[in-house]
Specification:
455 residues, globular
């Protein structure tokens, strides 16, 4: 039977959970990284491989996380402790969840730095700073922004405050209301920008770039990129989705809801590509594979040279800021909910304290772009780079592997069936993939990622 000892707030509806989980999944990577790696690795062929990876790696672990949260109705660490005791396993499994909680806080500490860039560029765009600007001028503006540690810390502080303002307000009044408003705003902004791109950009070129089935461009690196993005885009491996699952209404089906979230996440990434790359291709001097430079150097040039581009450029950075905001909320929620469920603090006190820790960690990332930019950790990383490596290449993959093993092997079939909305061959297929395919796929990401960094 489900362990539901603690009274717990719940999302107002299944739709609120879908919006919250989609908001957690949709972040900066969806806005520029996925469209770029898709276009560079075979377009539609890459998208097909990505969807297979979503089915074999992302969705199985996401279903497992939601199951754990919904069944226990508590924070990730306490959820793992309860499920371990229920299935006769050691409560030391809780370290899997503790690692995820720490990973979320570390990610927020450096994620807020990049999100701060988007916040800063919204007023820059409105002010007309990019009207008729050239590449040298745009690069100088971006480099000048990065070179000022106080400016970076200011925007970092604002973003942390925005995130904690939502989290400390509670599940229904804070997280729930935020996603109910922010996610529709994100979708509307994305569609408006799509319309602008269709009318002003090279839309047919963008469609060909993203969807032409060029299997000749697929390499092993392409497959690994698809696998890695499929795993990380759904915010799994750090307890965020488990925490959100603990607030899920009782009558909400797990598997169907997870499939809806995965579909929405993929659609947003593809629509973002169709909104961004027509603008990119309308400016021949801009390369589509410029990473962060595409967002903060090249696209402002393109917007500054187009009719109505200043207005729509401002909307674009508003879109990026909202996407970052909805993602950041889920990064800190597992830690806050753990402190509250343990009775150690109110949500207000936990939010201020834990948000303060993320802010302090973020100071190192802010200084990594100016004062301490040289690689001083193992001779390979500055603080920002090390934080990203530790979480993306180590903590999240290991967390995903452990979650797959815990739910797939340590938890009985009857207990899983009791809480799941699928049965028969669909249930057997999900459990088989979770037990025997997903862990090995994630291990590939883990080991090859480590090898790629150090060799």
């Amino acid at each position: 039977m489900a362990t539901n000892a603690l009274p717990r707030e719940a999302w107002n509806s299944r739709l609120t959970f879908i919006l919250a989980a989609t908001g957690s999944a949709v972040g900066l990577g969806n806005i520029w990284k996925f469209p770029y790696i898709a276009g560079e690795n075979g377009g539609g062929a890459f998208v097909l491989v990505y969807l297979v990876c979503i089915l074999l790696a992302g969705i199985p672990v996401m279903i497992a996380e939601v199951f754990m949260g919904k069944r226990t109705r508590t924070s990730p660490v306490l959820a793992v402790e309860k499920l371990a005791a229920e299935s006769g396993q050691s409560t030391r499994w809780r370290w899997m969840a503790i690692m995820g909680v720490i990973a979320g806080m570390v990610i927020l500490s450096y994620y807020s730095i990049v999100a701060g860039w988007a916040l800063a560029y919204f007023p820059k765009m409105i002010s007309g700073a990019f009207v008729a600007i050239d590449d040298a001028g745009s690069s100088a503006l971006f480099n000048e922004h990065l070179s000022n540690p106080w400016r970076l810390l200011g925007w970092h502080s604002l973003f942390i405050i925005m995130t904690m303002a939502v989290v400390i307000t509670g599940v229904t009044r804070g997280l729930g209301k935020a996603v109910e408003y922010l996610m529709p705003i994100l979708f509307v902004l994305l569609l408006i920008l799509l319309g602008f791109s269709i009318s002003q950009g090279e839309f047919s070129h963008a469609v060909k770039y993203l969807f032409a089935f060029d299997f000749g461009s697929l390499t092993m690196d392409s497959v690994l990129a698809a696998l890695g993005h499929a795993f990380f885009t759904l915010s799994i491996g750090m307890g965020a989705i488990m925490a959100y699952g603990s607030y899920m209404p009782e009558d909400t089906p797990i598997a169907k809801t997870v499939l809806t979230v995965a579909a929405l996440d993929t659609c947003v990434a593809l629509i973002a590509g169709l909104a961004i790359f027509p603008i990119v291709f309308a400016s021949p001097a801009i390369e589509p594979g410029e990473g962060a430079g595409l967002l903060f150097i090249s696209l402002p040039i393109a917007f500054g040279s187009m009719p109505g581009g200043i207005f729509f450029g401002a909307l674009f950075f508003a879109l990026v800021s909202v996407a970052a905001w909805t993602s950041s909320i889920s990064l800190i929620e597992p830690a806050v909910s753990w402190a509250v469920d343990k009775g150690k603090a109110t949500r207000l006190k936990a939010g201020i304290f834990l948000g303060g820790i993320c802010w302090l960690l973020g100071i190192g990332s802010a200084l990594s772009f100016n004062v301490y930019s040289d690689p001083w950790i193992f001779g390979l990383f500055n603080w920002f780079e090390f934080s990203d490596f530790l979480t993306s290449y180590v903590m999240l993959p290991v967390g995903g592997i452990l979650m797959a093993i815990f739910v797939g092997h340590m938890f009985g079939k009857s207990a899983l069936l009791e809480s799941m909305d699928i049965e028969g061959w669909l249930f057997d297929a999900w459990r088989f993939v979770l037990r025997w395919i997903t862990p090995d796929l994630i291990k590939i990401i883990f080991f090859l990622g480590i090898i790629n960094i150090f060799l």
